[in-house]
Design a protein that fits this description.
alpha/beta; Rossmann fold; about 220 residues; about 20% strand; five-stranded parallel beta sheet
């Protein structure tokens, strides 16, 4: 039987064992519900045990627009080579190694500006589970290949393609794109990236069906 949200919460809660910190990755194509699921899991887990879980999005490792301009990659923003994959893998290693020692600060991502923000996400030493989410957690090429080995489990969010596109267009519109520009971006650059991500589905420990995904706010 496919898991429901309560099953996912129980599975996430069981990941830390023996007093160690566990890292859970949530992968999926753009707009598939990764952030919504991660936020809901952390909220539910912390409601029962305050400080148990922390949320560290991969999006904080976007390269800044100035660097994308220098590299000639701004028109492909969101593709695998527009992130600091090595930096992300290094942070995951640090989150595991420094559990119980000190607060680790991760970068965040400002959606309106579409820019990373250094030191925006604190992970306190007592957090027993770190939930991280992003498109390329299961990608096996380049520095992305280091990511999977640093995660205890990776779940893959699967959503109907038409609904995924609808949500993604609405998100781009919410953060300033015109309806035409939003749809052009989603059906161009984002669709190519989504194909890369979909090809990594079989590497996941668990495929999360749409029925188990919390609905996004609004």
């Amino acid at each position: 039987m496919p898991p429901n949200f309560a099953d996912l919460v129980a599975r996430a809660r069981a990941l830390p064992a023996g007093g160690r910190r566990a890292l859970l990755g949530i992968a999926g194509s753009p707009g598939a519900g990764k952030s919504t699921l991660a936020e809901a899991l952390v909220r539910e887990l912390n409601g029962a045990d305050e400080g148990f879980a922390a949320h560290v999005p991969m999006d904080g490792f976007h390269l800044a627009d100035a660097e994308l301009d220098r590299l000639g990659r701004r028109g492909r923003k969101g593709a695998p080579d527009t992130f600091d994959a090595a930096g992300y893998a290094a942070l995951l290693g640090r989150l595991r190694a420094e559990a119980g020692r000190e607060t680790v600060y991760a970068p965040g991502f400002e959606r309106v500006l579409e820019q990373p923000l250094a030191g925006a996400v604190p992970v306190p030493p007592a957090a027993r589970l770190v939930v991280t989410e992003g498109n390329y957690l299961l990608l096996g090429t380049g520095a992305w290949a280091r990511v999977r080995s640093r995660l205890d489990e990776v779940w893959f969010c699967e959503l109907d393609e038409a609904e995924r596109v609808r949500r993604l267009v609405a998100r781009h519109e919410e953060f300033g794109k015109s309806p035409e520009a939003a749809r052009a971006w989603v059906l161009g650059s984002d669709r190519r990236n989504a194909g890369l991500v979909a090809a990594t589905r079989d590497r996941a420990d668990l495929v999360v069906p749409a029925a188990a995904l919390p609905r996004p706010a609004g």
